Structure formats: structure tokens, C-alpha cells
Amino acid sequence: RASRIRGRSMTISLFDDERLARLTALRNVAAKSAGWMIEVGVDSPERLAELGAVETYCRMKAAHPREVSLCAVWALQGAIDGVASAHLSAETKQALKDEVQQRRTTGETA
User: Fold this and answer.
1) pTM of the predicted protein model
2) Residue 47 parent element (H or E)
3) What is the pLDDT averaged over residues 23-39?
């Protein structure tokens, strides 16, 4: 049985099931977000931690500008930290928002 997640420009096949399962095992990461993460080269929890929430968010936002909201960067940070995004401090959320904004103003992807 081949499982598929279809999006505007993505199809994740059975080949990706293991990566998908590892990513969706993280807090705050649903199948659609995990598919987008794989699509942009973030195919494991280790890769997410290596790149960080902001870089991963920027890649996802560039690939899916209308679908990915700022809440995704908080969800990704929560996934890295192992906490629900609702439990991130206001300071952490603001720091992430500021970093995303800085990347936008310097011309980096976001």
C-alpha cells in the first residue's frame, strides 16, 4: 500500500515513509509539514536541529509562500526543543520572529 501526501508541487511516496514517520513523531509536526520539510531537504530530526527552525521555515516559506505561516517557525522550534509551540516563551517567539524579519530585510529567503 503506497501512502501519498499531495500538495501543490509535492508527492511523498512510500519511499519517504520512514522519513515522514520520524518527522511526524516530533511535537508540532503534522504530515503536511513533514512533507514540505522533506521537499526542502530537511529529512530528519537531526537535520532540523542542524539547520534550525528559522532556516527550515525560510526554506518551507520559499517553496510554499501562501501555505506556510509564521506559526510554522514556532512549531519547528518547539519540535527541536520537544515542547508544544504554545509553551514557547514570548521571548523565544519574538526572537524567532525578529530573526525571520531580519532575513527578509537582508534579502535572505523568508
Assistant:
1) 0.83
2) helix 45-51
3) 96
